[in-house]
Each structure stands twice: as C-alpha cells, then as structure tokens.
Amino acid sequence: MSKRKSTRIVVSLFTFICGTAYFSIGETPAPPPKQASDAVQEAQTQHPVPISRPEQTKTDHDKSDIFEANKAMPSSNAFKDQPDKGEILGFDFYRDPLGAKKPMESPMEIEKADKAMKDEVMAQQRKLLEHRYILTPKFDPEVKMSRGKPVPIGPTARLPKGITWEDLAKMSPEEIRKDGTFPYPSLPHPKQAPGGQVFPQVQIKMFPRLQRFDVDFDLPDAFLPEFPPAIFLQSRPELGDVSRGEVVSINNYYRLFKDILTPVQLDGLRMLVTPFPQEEFNPTDDRKSEEPSLGVTCLDCHVNGHTTGQIHLNPDDRPEQRRMRLDTVSLRGLYNQQIHSSKRSLRSVEDFTEFEQRTAYFNGDEIHAFKKGANILNRVQVSHMAQMQNMFDFPPAPKLNVEGRLDRSKATEAEIRGEDLFFGKAQCAVCHPAPIYMDQQMHDLKLERFVNEAPLGPMKTFTLRGIKDSPPYMHDGRCFTLEDTVEFFNLILELKLNPQEKADLVAFMRTL
C-alpha cells in the first residue's frame, strides 16, 4: 500500500471517528453558553485607564472656559452696534437641550434637577395608582402565560365606597360622568413632560442602558407580560417556543436562529436588535440616560417579538398635554394585520418602520430625530425587517379549531358559555371576529360620555389572540386584568352582564 493511500485511509478513519463522536454528543446537546454582557453597552463604554502619559493630563487650557459659546470671539467688530451684538440670546434648538428652562442651560443642570424631582414624581404616581387600583395582585391557580408566569385576576379598580359593579351598570353614562364614578379613566404617563419610553425594572436589570435618571416604570411586575416572553414562529410551528428562555439581542440572535430562519429573516432580525437613536436614549444633551447611548432597538420594546409592557406617549397629538400614554403592542400575528399604529392607520409594517425610524421612535417629530441622529433605512433593509416581523406568531391555542372557534369537545362549560356571550350578548365579535379576533378597523368608543376627559377619537382594534399573555389592557394599560377589561366594556357598551357571564367571558378569552 502506498504512503499516500494509507494517509487517506487514516484521515478518513479519523474523520469517521470524530464524526461519530460529534453526532453522539449531539444527542445530548450542551447547555447554551452563558449570556454575555450586553454587547451594545460594551460598545459604548469607555473604560478608564491610569494617567501615565503627559498627553493624558488635563492642562489649564483644557479646563478653561474659552470653549463656551458666549466666549467666542466675533467674526467682526461691527457686531457691537447690531441688535444683541450679533449673538443668539434665546433658545438655540441645535445647542440647548430639549426642555431647557433657559438658553444655554447645561445638561448637567437639567439632569441634577430631574434626579432631585424623581422621588416626588414617582411618589405622586404611586399615590394615584393606589387611589385607583388594588395593587396587591391575585393570581389564577391554574392558568399561566406561555412560559409559566401566573395570570393576574381582577377586577383591580377601586369603586367609591358603597357602590358595587352592579350599581354602576344601572347608571346612565351621564350619571357616571356627573358623579365622577367611572372606574377606568385614562392612565397617565408618570412624567408627561417630557414623556418618552420607560422600561420595566426587570428589563433594566438585564440591560442597564435602558435606565432613565428622571422617571421609573410605574406598574407592578405582576400585571406585566412575561420576561422573557416566548417566541412562536409561523414558519416553524412544530418547534413551539423557540426563545429557549433567553431575551433575543445582538449578543445571541445568530446562535439562536441560524438554523431556523432564512438569511433574509436573519438579516431582518439583526436590524431589529441593532440600536438606533431615540428621543430619550441617544448621544445628545437631550437624552434621559446618564451616559450617551447608541439608542434603543426595535426588540428592546417588542421583546422577543412580544412586549413587556413598556410605555411611551402616542406620536399623533400635540401639544404635549394632549398626548396619550401608550403601551407597547405585541408583534405576534403581525402577518395578519392591515393597520399599524393606534391612530395613524399606516397600511404596511414597512411604512410603519420607515416612519418610526425617521422620527426617533414614537415621537412623530422628524426635526428632533435629525438632531439626535435620524436613521434613514433603504427599502431593502426595511423589507428584511418586515420579513422577520411577519414570522412572529400567536401562542398555540389548542382549544380552537381551524376556523378559530372553540372546539367544544375540548372546552369547559364556562368556556362554551363565554364563547356564546362573546359572539352574542356581549357584542365582542363586532370588533373582534374570529379567527384573528380583530376586524382591521378603527372605532371610537366615545369615552367622553362617561368621564370628563379629552375625546380619544377612533383607535384601531387590537387582536385578542394570545390575550392572556399581554396584560395590562387597553391602549394605555388602564385595565390591569381581563376581568377589568370585561367590567370596562360592560359599562361602555351598557351590556348589563351578570357576574357569571363576566366570569364566563374571561374563561373564553383565556382560550384564545
């Protein structure tokens, strides 16, 4: 046997042995590697080093005030005879931080004032919540969200002393408005000015770059979705939850999905976990994070294609006091939705993505966005992002048939009664028809009949599929539980449901 031939045999045998060992090990895969520190945070963290070189030392020149705007030498001595000596003495948009109380106010002054006010701001919001709601949660002993978090039960709204839900249901809208007894008025942002995105503490613990110095998230964790949420893909339904208990980020997206998604979808996912400047998280003096930030990612808010209840203000109204608190909506089932955004009726997710990137995420203001770093995506990138967003599916609903209706052979009596109510007396299916449980329309509930607040106008219908995974409810999260939501609509639609009917409705919605 020649030396070359024997070498080939040895190499082949080695390959066979190694391959056999590989597949043997593959039968019991190793646990995933420990999640690394946030790559985005690392990318923008300047690590301190000892001052050991002369060029590192701050000189008197470095520390002088000659760099300040009001110390700049004029380009002409003639300005002394011109108005204001040629200087801008008022606010200068590109220079002065958003919300500055005076021209040339330093960002450090604003940050110091915001920090000093923060405890008072949050105490006031807590006082409001405790006045309106029972914040000690109760949980269903059996029903869980997709990854096991207990489902909170209600209603949680506090009623005036001596008044029951049945008493309220007998009152006319005019009486409820006059008496001020409507239990679900709008839920305000904890700090309306400047408003902006606020993340739950459970998420900030994992991603400290999302911490604001001026305001914290206000709702108890018990009334929020899971963190991390499950991920279901409509392209791979046989896999079930593909999150594997991890939050998808720039650190791990490729490892988790390289053998599940197409190259186009993977590239779209890469874009969805890439940070871009946002109103409160950016490198400018306008930011509300202590350190300059690359921004936030799409999936910082739509965590794992779902949500963890983050809030911001709607971009559709002005002035600031007219804007509404908005909860982050889930991307699950996006492939079946024809209206995007709560009020603007954008007709494709591509249009929605482009609009939000141009306006620094949910501010409706491309002027401020350009100051912070507007992100103009080309249509190829946008289409890749849309490809990925359209993969996110609803959680499995084993009690529903192929038409999206209840398979009554698998349902309880309460769930069956609930479905009859949903498609009958309770009128839910008028706006939430099967199988997706949304009607692709916008509706005006005319809440101003019940409460002395600015009219909301038409709002889009949101899907009810997988609804038990998505507390709190309504556009601003004013209804903490499904029981609260049923009470809300029992009043708004004047349905006169009895306690058993309300419970049955909730039982049915938990099957969706």
Any descriptors?
512 residues; mainly alpha; two-stranded antiparallel sheet; two-stranded antiparallel ribbon; 16 helices; 4% strand; globular; disordered N terminus
Model description:
The protein is 31% helix and 4% strand. The protein is mostly helical. The strands form three sheets. It has a two-stranded antiparallel sheet. Strands 3-4 form a two-stranded antiparallel ribbon. Strand 1 and strand 2 (150-153) form a beta hairpin. It is globular and about 85 Å long. Mean pLDDT is 91; it is low at 3-27.
List the helices and strands and how they pair.
Layout: H1 3-26, H2 39-43, H3 60-63, H4 107-132, E1 138-144, E2 150-153, H5 165-170, H6 173-179, H7 201-206, H8 253-257, H9 263-272, H10 298-301, E3 311-313, E4 325-327, H11 349-358, H12 366-372, H13 379-389, H14 413-422, E5 442-443, E6 459-460, H15 482-492, H16 499-509
Antiparallel strand pairs: 1-2, 3-4, 5-6
